[in-house]
Recover the amino acids of this structure.
């Protein structure tokens, strides 16, 4: 089944709206590195997934990649519930499915002149259309692929005067996922996402604006792994984010705030008797206009 998790990044909004070295408008939470080995492989079934993500950032970088003065720190922990269903009904030769994702996050912010924390529910993410194609061949080897049309609904906790988990804006975040099995042991997987975020008509009061809208962005997850036993896979996982368009403040372009980040680290998967465990750790580099983080994630997936 699709292995989609939600990356908790509410801490970034706190940095961006209180530190002049970061962009005034922050990109919302998205899937950065929360999909990994054999991601494209799936078939008609039901799936439930629980994931835990822990993140720490103690520096923020500007548009030139320079470390800001007195950046403070942000710590976040997110728990995500995810359910998906791939039916046997086919559309364009692919199995059609749906999914829903709900995050809960605890965030602690420590900045010069400000300390804050919150524990709240984030925005609900749904997909009315998942298209999972059966196994095909690429260069004579097995190839799996999927399209997923995720939409985030602004249902999460939000207060323009306080640290919030929700983004108070609709988001469209479709992705294409694939897995290519090079041989019986090695595989290559990835996801290519596009992120569009709607307008927030009640932005944080620290922006001094009546409305804000982040620019569009692309983000990519990639991994390569080797099978070491019937249960264990080990490998490397990475993600890359690049903002394509300028943010808008009061419907006017605000140049100079395009976010960018590259994260890399080791990962594993373990097939237990009832389900599969996935884990990864990431260190970020090439950061622009956002905090630089270290992050670890652990997911448990059960299919029926």
């Amino acid at each position: 089944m699709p292995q989609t998790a939600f990356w908790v990044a509410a801490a970034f909004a706190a940095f961006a709206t209180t530190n002049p070295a970061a962009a005034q408008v922050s990109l919302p939470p998205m899937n950065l590195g929360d999909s990994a080995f054999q991601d494209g492989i799936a078939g008609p079934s039901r799936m439930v997934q629980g994931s835990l993500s822990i993140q720490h950032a103690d520096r923020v970088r500007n548009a030139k990649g320079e470390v800001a003065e007195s950046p403070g720190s942000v710590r976040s922990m997110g728990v995500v519930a995810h359910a998906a269903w791939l039916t046997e009904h086919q559309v364009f030769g692919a199995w059609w499915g749906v999914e829903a994702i709900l995050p809960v996050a605890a965030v602690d912010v420590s900045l010069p002149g400000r300390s804050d924390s919150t524990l709240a529910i984030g925005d609900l993410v749904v997909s009315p259309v998942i298209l999972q194609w059966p196994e095909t061949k690429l260069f004579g080897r097995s190839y799996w692929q999927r399209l997923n049309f995720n939409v985030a609904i602004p249902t999460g906790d939000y207060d323009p005067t306080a640290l919030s988990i929700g983004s108070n804006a609709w988001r469209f975040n479709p992705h294409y996922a694939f897995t290519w099995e090079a041989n019986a042991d090695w595989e290559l997987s990835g996801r290519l996402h596009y992120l569009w975020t709607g307008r927030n008509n009640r932005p944080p009061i620290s922006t001094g604006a009546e409305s804000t809208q982040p620019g569009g962005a692309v983000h990519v997850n990639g991994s390569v792994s080797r099978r070491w036993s019937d249960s264990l896979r080990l490998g490397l996982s990475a993600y890359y984010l690049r903002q394509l368009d300028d943010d808008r403040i009061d419907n006017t372009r605000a140049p100079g705030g395009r976010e960018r980040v590259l994260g890399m680290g080791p990962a594993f998967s373990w097939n237990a008797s009832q389900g599969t465990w996935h884990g990864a750790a990431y260190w970020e580099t090439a950061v622009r206009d956002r905090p630089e983080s270290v992050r670890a994630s652990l997911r448990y997936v059960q299919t029926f």
